[in-house]
Design brief:
It is found in: Cytoplasm. Keywords: Aminoacyl-tRNA synthetase, ATP-binding, Cytoplasm, Ligase, Nucleotide-binding, Protein biosynthesis. It comes from Halalkalibacter akibai (strain ATCC 43226 / DSM 21942 / CIP 109018 / JCM 9157 / 1139) (Bacillus akibai). It catalyses: tRNA(Arg) + L-arginine + ATP = L-arginyl-tRNA(Arg) + AMP + diphosphate. The chain is built from 22 helices and 13 strands. Among the domains are: about 80 residues, Gyrase A, domain 2 (2-Layer Sandwich); about 90 residues, no CATH class; about 170 residues, Orthogonal Bundle (Isoleucyl-tRNA Synthetase, Domain 1). The longest helix is centred in the middle third of the chain and has 25 residues. The two termini are about 35 Å apart. A 4-stranded parallel β-sheet has the order 5-4-9-10, with helices on both faces. The protein has a 3-stranded antiparallel β-sheet with strand order 1-3-2. A 3-stranded antiparallel β-sheet has the order 6-7-8. The model has no long low-confidence stretch (mean pLDDT about 95). It has about 575 residues and is an alpha/beta fold. About 40% of the residues are buried. The protein binds arginine (ARG).
Length: about 575
């Protein structure tokens, strides 16, 4: 925050520009103990430059620094410790947060440039898996974070709506399917047909030929095949929309794999033209030996295109359409090789924008230590899981706050928030153990705990301040307020860090710390006591609600006023 810069500036001033402000700012540490002040500058690296012992440099600097925001400067061995003027600084922080409101923590890093983010991207006619849930939740949060950093974000759902499986599905439907059953229960029924196809095909290998034949028809634009394909797609999408509705996630585009069907020829021609394609047993591949990677398969010997062909074409299309600065793919880590290959092929094609492509991988969701599987009809339908979380949340709320008016609305916010937070509190590369009971606890490291803290702070505001008038608030100089203020001051840095790392967990962890800090404050300080700092304390509480609410929003979670 700006205070670090002020401190750095003061130091540079007395160093006759031996180091730049940036260098000094990077060196400044957050001291471990309160008695060491608010910022500490280590003098080790100056010793050589000045040919002087670090502790002597510290003494010298400490005696010279003088700024109204810095109340005291003390040499502590080789360190210069700076103590901020609590009264002035706290007033400034509170004024900033209260005037900026939910814009507090915004950055202009992106300068309005475009970022395309490809996330969720489930497969038509298959269940929405736990992996897709992770992609949805992480991708949605990253979108919010990137937007807060000043980029224009384009959210793309790259639906898995193309590929040989549609040939199988058409064959299976024509043989065993019933329209009404598909309408009633699309995903379940389509999955059932798909599984049945594989069972039957074990004894009747000509079914596979049939399927290839129908997929070819589909690729060539056959009317009947197209109608069936579109119907499967529409029905599946209706089901997925229910999940997106519950999670409150929206997309700018649903252009999935099928969208690129008529655009891949051009890609392949281009690759030929650049002499990048090699034939290998009748198939077209691009060698990536020089990167120690297996070749990227572009076209099979029967002429069919592949997942990678569609991703190459999609990246080119997106660059043309959106001129993105960055394009992120929020997809499980098991697809790392695929993305490495696709990005390198684009690099070989000479596209400098390929440097902006980034795979953002994540780990698995586990149940009792095992990967949750959606295979062979043994499906846990995600919609049911979310609804169960909402029901459990409602039971909790009925116990805790029986008089709450809009219980079911709040239950939705809490149940959904619990699922999202449980995912995002972990670094995304880690595996997550799925447990509804753990997620829904109101204490500990859960979404409901943060939401509850927000609601509690909001209720104090209701009790203490009917005017919501925070003009001319006095600064706060007590140590309890100071610890809260210092953490609130960190919010912009936390956002920048989560942006740089593509890590929503930076924010969720921070929100847990803020909640903890506030709950300690609440237990130690009489916030509503009638003295001349009451309005300042309320301004502090108001600032907490702003930061908690905005932080939760960045994760994709709502903050109810009461719960
Ligand atoms: N549909 C794919 C799957 O479920 C994920 C697609 C990810 N996005 C992409 N552009 N490849 O595995």
């Amino acid at each position: 925050m700006e205070f670090k810069k002020i401190f750095a500036n003061e130091i540079v001033l007395h160093l006759e520009n031996l180091l730049s402000i940036n260098e000094v700012e990077k060196l400044i540490e957050n001291p471990k103990y309160e008695q060491q002040g608010d910022m500490a500058f280590p003098c080790f690296s100056l010793a050589k430059l000045l040919k002087k012992a670090p502790n002597l440099i510290a003494i010298d600097l400490a005696s010279k620094i003088n700024h109204p925001f810095i109340e005291n400067v003390v040499a502590d061995g080789p360190y210069v410790n700076g103590f901020l003027n609590k009264e002035i600084v706290s007033k400034r922080i509170l004024d900033t947060i209260l005037s900026e409101g939910n814009h507090y923590g915004n950055h202009s890093i992106g300068m309005g440039k475009n970022v395309v983010i490809d996330f969720s991207s489930p497969n038509i006619a298959k269940p929405f898996s736990m992996g897709h849930l992770r992609s949805t939740v992480i991708g949605n949060s990253l979108s919010n974070i990137i937007e807060k950093c000043g980029f224009n974000i384009i959210k793309v759902n790259h639906l898995g709506d193309w590929g040989t499986q549609f040939g199988k599905l058409i064959v299976a439907y024509k043989l065993w399917g019933e329209e009404q059953q598909v309408r009633n229960n699309p995903i379940k029924e389509l999955l059932h047909l798909y599984v049945k196809f594989h069972e039957e095909a074990e004894n009747k290998p000509n079914l596979e030929d049939e399927a290839r034949y129908w997929f070819k028809k589909l690729e060539d634009g056959d009317e009947e095949a197209k109608i069936l394909w579109k119907w499967f797609r529409d029905e599946s999408l209706k089901e997925f929309s229910k999940i997106y509705g519950l999670l409150d996630v929206e997309f700018d585009s649903y252009q999935g794999e099928a969208f690129y069907n008529d655009k891949m020829d051009k890609t392949i021609k281009h690759l030929y033209h650049q002499q990048l394609i090699k034939e290998s047993e009748g198939a077209d591949v691009i060698e990536l030996k020089e990167f120690d990677l297996p070749p990227c398969l572009i076209r099979k010997s029967d002429g069919a295109t592949l997942y990678a062909t569609r991703d190459l074409t999609a990246a080119m299309f997106r660059q043309k359409e959106y001129q993105f600065e960055k394009a992120l793919y929020v997809v499980g880590q098991e697809q790392s090789l695929h993305f490495k290959q696709v990005f390198l092929v684009l690099e070989k094609m000479g596209y400098s924008w390929s440097q902006g492509l980034e795979h953002v991988p994540f780990g698995f969701i586990l149940k009792e230590g095992k990967k949750m599987s959606t295979r062979k009809g043994k499906v846990v339908l995600l919609e049911h899981v979310i609804k169960e979380a909402i029901e459990l949340a409602e039971e909790n709320i009925k116990l805790k706050n029986p008089d709450l008016e809009n219980k079911s609305e709040v239950a939705k916010m809490v149940g959904v928030g619990a699922i999202i937070f449980h995912d995002l509190k972990n670094e995304r590369q880690n595996n997550v153990e799925f447990s509804l009971e753990d997620m829904l606890r109101f204490e500990g490291t859960t979404g409901p705990y943060v939401q509850y803290t927000h609601a509690r702070a909001t209720s104090i505001l209701r009790k203490g301040n009917d005017t919501n008038d925070f003009f001319n608030v006095l600064g706060l100089s007590d140590n309890h307020s100071w610890s809260v203020l210092k953490i609130l001051m960190e919010f912009p840095n936390v956002i920048e860090r989560s942006f740089n790392l593509n890590e929503p967990s930076q924010i969720s962890k921070y929100l847990l710390d803020v909640s903890q800090e506030f709950n300690t404050y609440y237990s130690r300080v009489k916030i509503l006591a009638e003295d001349n700092e009451k309005q300042g304390r309320l301004a502090l509480v108001k600032s907490i609600t702003i930061v908690l609410k905005e932080g939760l929003r960045l994760l994709g979670i709502k903050a109810p006023e009461k719960m």
